[in-house]
Every structure is written in C-alpha cells, then in structure tokens.
Amino acid sequence: MGRINMDKLALELAFTDDKAKKEELAKKIRTIAYKHGIYASSIEELYKARGRGDFEGTFSVPAINLRTMTYDLAKAIFRVAKKINAGAFIFEIAKSEMGYTSQPAVEYTAVILAAAVKEEWKGPVFVQGDHFQANAKNFKLDPEKEIEGLKDLIVHAIEAGFYNIDIDSSTLVDLSQPTVDRQQRSNYEVCAKLTHFIRQNQPRGIEVSVGGEIGEVGHANSNPEELRAFMNGFKSSLRKGLPGISKVSIQTGTSHGGVVLPDGTVAKVKLDFDTLRTLSKIAKDEYGLAGAVQHGASTLPAEAFGKFPENGTAEVHLATEFQNMVYDSPNFPKDLKDKVYNWLKTTQGAERKADQTEEQFLYSARKKALGQFKKDILSIPQKTKDAIAKEIEAKFEFLFNKLNVKDTRTLTDKYVTLKRVISRKKAKEVVMDGQGAD
Q: Which CATH superfamily is domain 6-332+380-433 in?
C-alpha cells in the first residue's frame, strides 16, 4: 500500500459532508483499488451460469447490508473470505438505508473498496443496491414522477459502482384485482421498465445483475402462480433481446428486523422452506434464473441457515443482526448508547405505536439513529471498534460456512470478468479489460 493510509482515507471519506470532496476521495480510493487488482463487479455471469446448470448450485450467496462501522465490518468480511477462499458474497445497501445511515452510494462503494485494499483482497467486489423500491402511495398519485425518482437513484448508484441492483416494485402488487396477472401487472411492468433503463445506462462491457421481487417482505407467502404471472408478464413487457433479471425475491414468512417481543428480543420465525425450494426450482428450470432470494434472514435461528443452500436459495439478505451486534456489544460505549436512546425517545417518540413497550420501540427505532450518530460511532477508539468487529467477524464466518460459500472463489474467478471503468458520463462508461490494468 506504500505510504497510503487506507484507515485515514476511509474515515475522511465517511466524515466529510462536502459532496465534491466525497466524490474526489471516492475516485482516489477507486484508483488505488484498481492498482491493487480490485474491481467493483457484477455477479451476473455467475448467476447466469447457475441458471444454465453449469455447476451444482449448492451454495447461497450472502448479501450483507452494512448500516454502521462499514469500513471495519467490511474488513472483517474480507478476512473471512480470504480464510475460507470465498468469492460469492455481496455488500449491499437499500434505498432507505442510504438515507437513515447517511451513506450515499458513492461513499458506500468506496469505503468497501478501501477495506478490500487494506485486507489485500484481489479480484471482484460485488456491491448491490437493495430494495430500490417504488412507493405505492406516490406511484398511485403520480406514477411517472415515482419512476423518474427511481431512475435518478439508479444512475447515481451505477456511477458509484453498484453493478448489482434489486428492483422492488412488489409494493405495487394489487391483491384486490380478480386475477393473479392483474395483481402482478404494475409490478412486472415497472420492473421491466427499470430493467430497460438499467441496460441503457450500465457501463459498456458490464452487464448489471438485476433482481425482481414478487412478494413484499412481511406479507403473505409467495406461490408458483404469482411467480409465473410475474415472470411471463415481465418477459412480455421487456424489449425483445434485452437481458432480463437473474433472480427473484419471494416472501416465505420473514420480516425485516424480525418480530420484536415486548421484552425487546426477537421471536423465532418458522420459515417456509418448501416455498423456497419450489419457487427456486421453477425460477431456475423454467426461466433460467439463479433461483429465489430470501430477505430478512439475519435474525433467524442459527439452525435455519444451513437449509438455504439445501433448498436451492440463490441469495440470502442479511442486515439487522449485525446492527444489533454493534449496539449490544459489551464493547460499545455505554455513554454513547445512552445518548442514542435518549435522542430516540426525544425525537422519534411520535413513531412509537400505542401497543409497543419501550424495549420494542427502541429496538425497532434505533436504526434511525445511525446517521445522526454516524460520526460519534466512527470516532470510537480504534481498539474498541476492532473488538466489536472481531465479535461480528465470528458471525460472518459462521454464516459463510453455513451458506456453503467456502471455495466459491474458483467460480467467481472463472465466470466474473474484471472491467476497469476509465471514464464516465451519465453512467455510460468506456471500459477496458481489467487483467493487467494499472
């Protein structure tokens, strides 16, 4: 790494509120990453190969949302990946998370690339936009305005190196309609429209991995009829010849953050693995997709994770538990936690539901404090942050092993082509082969 202090550079990037300065620092980090053989990449070709049956898909790709301590936790993830020779894993952040954690796309990608440099990683790094979601109420009032907002988000995400994007228009499913096709119509039409837009704006030489969604997390479980109605409608709505989606998110009984009990603990959830297995098989066999995607999984009991690869799950999204482990770590400063909770009670009290205990309210609301206290958390002494990250690193290793991504580096090396972005204009970029590039 020469004289470059990646710890300092990543912290400076996360701390600055100046947009131009943030973009300048991100560009610097990305240039350094290229020189070390590290590339923001798309997982599309690996997923296509899985859909074709080119290899036995006995692993489930972990997609990890880092809401806080992103640099430190990303370093821990790269350490685990190197230890077990994993290549198939994704860093992601949702549209909503970028807001309440104060992590714009340009910062998120660059901080992760800085962590990759620090841990001497080589090769692809997959960064994903999770839940690029249509707001049903806004869509009903002005559909074009809502879609334009999502297009703007997509452009900024692609410019930042998000070469994996999950479109979530499942919020537009209308169960009051008389047929399943009619129920799914707005969902598949918007998903097709945004997929087309992504294809128009993706870097030349990089095919962005796009995901769709048929059932909003936290609602009724998905079924084969819904999957087929969505996929058939999507295919007929997408311009002929354009690459479509490579995976589809479904609902199987989970909810984001888990179900919080009155004492603030998370209830055990019974996951419908039969639905996962059935829909993954349909997605793969009938439509050539990598399979089904499971959301809201991080707070599930430990014994559940080994069942995801057993049932053909393509991708598993993990978020809240890592945030919980930061907040609840014995190493997290008590005075800072008290400060966070006092702020929540003072400023977010109106969000508390009438039937919530204080513990339930604080558990569900504390994610909203991560942006407000971002600089305080990042200013925790490095020794303390290292101790917290070490605790969570053990969790990452457990999950990676349970999801069977050990030794998947051979697959990412085989199927993922490294491309260097050397210029950009509205996310339409000129690229050249990454092998041997400076």
A: Aldolase class I (3.20.20.70)
